[in-house]
Design a protein that fits this description.
Number of strands: 8
Radius of gyration: 31 Å
Structural class: alpha+beta
CATH topology of the largest domain: Four Helix Bundle (Hemerythrin (Met), subunit A)
Largest sheet: 4 strands, antiparallel
Order of helices and strands: HHHHHHHHHHHHHEEEEEEHEEHH
Bound molecules: adenosine-3',5'-cyclic-monophosphate
């Protein structure tokens, strides 16, 4: 019983570690970064080699090598796929399911479908050895890069979030296209039978006008036709501007949401905020701005006016005071003295490592300490202690 329990625990901890390596791209985890780099390299090399395969001279000269490389990629991608499936129960949102249920659910996620498709060309080769489609299907592997591009993932999330509005745009565009094509067909179908003589030709004309690539030589020949053409061009501007505006707003919302989540996670690293209740933390997150500085950055310079204070979510900074240097780390704060005493900065603060900071503007600082007296007392006590150290 004990032995069985131990082995289950061992398996779980191995699975947790593999999960961290495969699914969490952590900057500080060397193994995770290494695996990510190898996979990215493999995907890029794969796409380059596949394109090379379309060049007859390259295909003739390196056919065997390309084949061997493809087999290696299939093996590694299959291993990666199996690994991701195995660790699926470790995903937070799948923990309440059985191991099999979690794996089946995870296999249906878009990235896992892409991962499965990356192995499919090999299956196709076995089933249809001479299909022209095989090299083309290998190019699907480039989509695996989406996992490593936060920007691409953001686009995916924005499109998914705005799908209803975007679908409405497609319906409007389709309606406008059909209506203008039908009207033009009715007005000039007889005058210009070779260009507007059937609905397919009229639709091509309407699409060209709506997309503002012009109607080519198909200029309307009647006054009514010219009016319809002018309206079509203007409707085109409206139809194409609409999805651009929707996606733009979606991006803004997504970035705001992400900033909020990042800030929220960073607030958890500052013990000073740990005792605050949820509404206070939510209010605080709205006031704080996340900022990352590189080693050597001077964050605060002695004598400058103070416009904000800083909480350290991770990393180390050095405060240069007359008696030497003081180091502050995760959970500490600085820059409060200039705000409390409404004077210039009392010391220069420099980042010693890559440091994640939460920045609070002076006005928000004053509002916050008014709202949360315990926070005010704590910051004042620390500032007083520091004043004594400075002098
Ligand atoms: P401020 O004066 O706004 O800007 C410099 C900051 O350095 C100061 O606020 C404090 O937060 C910090 N600081 C000053 N003296 C000390 C000290 N002795 N120990 C730690 N931090 C200090």
């Amino acid at each position: 019983m004990t032995a069985g329990g131990t082995s289950t625990t061992d398996e779980q901890s191995v699975r947790q570690r593999v999960f961290d390596i495969l699914e969490h791209s952590r900057r500080r985890d060397v193994a995770s970064r290494l695996i990510d780099s190898i996979l990215i390299l493999l995907i890029v090399a794969n796409v380059v080699v596949t394109i090379g395969q379309f060049v007859p001279e390259i295909a003739a000269a390196y056919g065997d090598e390309i084949f061997a490389f493809d087999r290696l990629c299939v093996a590694l991608f299959a291993l990666e796929y199996a690994g991701r499936l195995w660790v699926a129960p470790e995903h937070l949102m799948l923990r309440d399911r059985s191991a099999l249920g979690a794996r089946l659910r995870f296999a249906a996620t878009p990235m896992m479908v892409i991962d499965a498709l990356a192995i499919v060309p090999w299956l196709l080769e076995v089933l249809l050895p001479h299909s022209e489609l095989i090299p083309l299907t290998r190019l699907v592997r480039v989509l695996k890069l989406a996992r490593y591009s936060p920007a691409l993932a953001t686009i995916g999330r924005v499109v998914a979030a705005e799908r209803r509005a975007l679908l409405a745009c497609v319906i409007i565009l389709g309606g406008v296209l059909l209506a203008t094509a039908a009207i033009m067909f009715a007005i000039e179908g007889r005058q210009q039978p070779e260009r507007l003589g059937d609905m397919s030709k009229a639709m091509w004309w309407a699409a060209a006008m709506l997309a503002k690539i012009g109607g080519g030589e198909t200029e309307p020949v009647t006054a009514l036709g010219r009016i319809v053409a002018a309206i079509t061009v203007m409707l085109g501007i409206f139809c194409f501007a609409l999805p651009v505006a929707i996606i733009g707003r979606g991006f803004y919302e997504e970035i705001r949401r992400r900033d909020f989540v990042v800030t929220f996670a960073m607030v958890a690293h500052v013990p000073l905020f740990a005792k605050l209740d949820a509404p206070a933390i939510a209010g605080l997150v709205g006031l704080l701005k996340a900022r990352t500085v590189t080693p050597g950055t001077i964050i605060v310079r002695k004598g400058d006016p103070g416009d904000s204070m800083y909480f350290i979510a991770s990393g180390t900074v050095q405060v240069a005071i007359e008696k030497g240097a003081v180091q502050l780390g995760e959970g500490d704060f600085f820059g409060e003295m200039a705000l409390l005493y409404r004077g210039p900065r009392t010391a220069t603060v420099t980042a010693l490592s890559s440091t994640d900071l939460l920045v609070l503007d002076a006005d928000d600082f004053l509002r916050l300490v008014d709202q949360i007296p315990s926070l005010k007392r704590h910051i004042e006590a620390v500032a007083e202690e520091r004043t004594n150290t400075v002098s």
